[in-house]
Amino acid sequence: MLQANDPKLKSWIPVAKDSDFPIQNIPFGIFKTKDEGPRVGSRIGDMVIDLNALFVLGYMANLPFDSEDFKTEYLNNIMQKGKEATRDLRNRISKLFREDFPDLKNNEQHVAQVLVDVKEVEMLLPIYTRDYTDFYSSEQHAYNVGCLFRDPNNALLPNWKHIPVGYHGRASSIIPSGVAIHRPKGQKKGPADEVPVFGASTLLDFELEVAFFTYQGKPLGDSITTQEADDYIFGMALFNDWSARDIQGWEYVPLGPFLGKNFASSLSCWIVTLDALEPFRVPGPKQDDPKILPYLEYSGNKHIDIKLEVLIQPEGGEENLVCTSNYKHMYWNMNQQLAHHTVNGCNINTGDCMASGTISGPEEGQYGSMLEISWKGTKPFKMSDASERKFINDMDTVIMRGYAEKDGVRIGFGEVSSKLLPAK
Ligand code: MN
Predict the structure, then answer these.
(1) Are residues 120 and 138 in the same domain?
(2) Which residue range(s) make up the domain with 359?
(3) Residue 110 catalytic?
(4) Ligand 1 centroid to residue 136 C-alpha, Å
């Protein structure tokens, strides 16, 4: 067991029972305050830990980090130091805040410099991502989309159970939780339209996804195997991969998603390390019908049990739960995605973002997009204020939350929340 994952650990910082951030989590993020600019933080309970302050006060001695790794706008610097270094960093933070470790706890002046109430911070985009890849790895989602647009008898395309299908997305429009987006405009051609029309998307959707972020990979030409993949994955976050279904439907042939996808993807601000999620590993589905190619085979449990939910909150109204799903429902896991991504020699870099694809569970109520929830608009979702949703309305806020829980330890992500504003 990793030292910082011990379920018996308790912190001297109070942690509410249903908090996403017990001492076993120790996520990483970038925050700023009224008086000071961006720096690296972690979190326990409702306290943000200023890692730059910890460094300046000498609590990071004998770790391979410098001042510029913590007084910085992105986590890329600490990620650049690799898995062992970030694991040691997480262990050090865990130790400093353990109930039975007095050094920092008993130094009131230092505590005041190191801890900031979460209400007083602004969370920023945590990672600089140069390349963003979006997969399509939930079987139920691929099946549902196949049923909606093709034929229930041939819902999965012939390649789907052989290849972790994906495409290269747009990294520049990955934005942190809390940043509103505008309804995108573009070309659309509905079934009744003779020619394409230009206008605001009327079929604006969320996609419930989880993203992982990579350490520096291998040189161009080399590949990462499924067994090596864990060493190249830093951590994970919640990801709302916004989609304009009408723009997407007209443009995607033959080269795939473009303007229907690249206008925004919203990211939760705390990166939960893969280390913190190790206790929640579960087996994945059998992949022997058809049998997968050897380079995609893996051993051990590589799926992760993460409970996920999506809520829609109209302006001034209450949150409506529209979906509960789970990351364990993936057909292809991260190790397979990374092995596939690099099998041709494609290089990955520190901070690359790889998203799961919409995560739909096997039952109704577990579908991870409005496209599926409203079954292409034929089954509108009834909101608590008696209004209906086929897709997302202007001024709706879409909220995604997620956490893993086992043996009385809950490791959560917080939330990714973003409001949809009218088209500009
Ligand atoms: Mn997506």
Answers:
(1) no
(2) 132-421
(3) no
(4) 7
Q: Between the CA of residue 140 and those of 136, 145, 367, what are the distances in Å?
A: 10, 9, 8
CA of 214 to the centre of ligand 1 (A): 18
Please report the pLDDT score of residue 168 as a whole number: 97
* Span 76-88, pLDDT tens digits: 999 999 999 999 9
Instruction: Report the separation in Å between the CA atom of 101 and the middle of ligand 1, taken as the mean of its atom positions.
Output: 44
- Cβ-based neighbours of 131, under 8 Å, separated by 6 or more: 168, 171, 348, 349, 352, 353
CA of 134 to the centre of ligand 1 (A): 6
Please give the model's pTM, rounded to 2 decimal places: 0.98
What distance in Å separates the CA atoms of residue 303 and residue 328, rounded to the nearest whole number?
6
pLDDT in tens, 210-258: 999 999 999 999 999 999 999 999 999 999 999 999 999 999 999 999 9
Question: Which whole number is the average pLDDT over 52-80?
Answer: 98
- The pLDDT tens digits for 170-223 are 999 999 999 999 999 999 999 899 999 999 999 999 999 999 999 999 999 999
Q: How far is CA 67 from CA 26, 53, 126, in A?
A: 20, 10, 17
Q: Among the three residues 86, 101, 124, which one is the final residue of a domain in this structure?
A: 124
Q: What is the pLDDT of residue 77?
A: 98
Residue 157 — very low, low, confident or very high, per pLDDT cuts 50/70/90?
A: very high
The CATH number linked to 287 is 3.90.850.10
Task: Using the mean position of ligand 1's atoms as its centre, give its distance from the Cα of residue 251 in Å.
Answer: 16
**CA distance linking residue 228 with residue 226, whole number of Å:** 6
Q: Residue 279 carries which DSSP code?
A: G
Q: Which of 421, 299, 282, 312 minimizes the C-alpha distance to 374?
A: 312
Whole-angstrom distance, CA of residue 103 vs CA of residue 112: 14
Whole-number pLDDT of residue 103: 95
311 shares its domain with 242: yes
**Measured in angstroms, how far is the CA atom of residue 48 from the centroid of ligand 1?**
30
Residue ending a domain, choose from 82, 106, 124 = 124
- Start-end of H helices in 228-294: 245-251, 274-277
Q: Whose CA is closest to 265, among 233, 236, 243, 246?
A: 243
**Of 141, 303, 340, 341, catalytic:** 141
- Please tell me whether residue 424 adopts helix, strand or coil conformation: coil
Beta-sheet strands, E only, within 195-288:
197-200, 204-205, 208-214, 233-240, 243-244, 265-267, 272-273, 281-282
Q: How many domains does the chain have?
A: 2
- Region 9-33: mean pLDDT is 98
Distance CA 136, CA 248 (A): 15
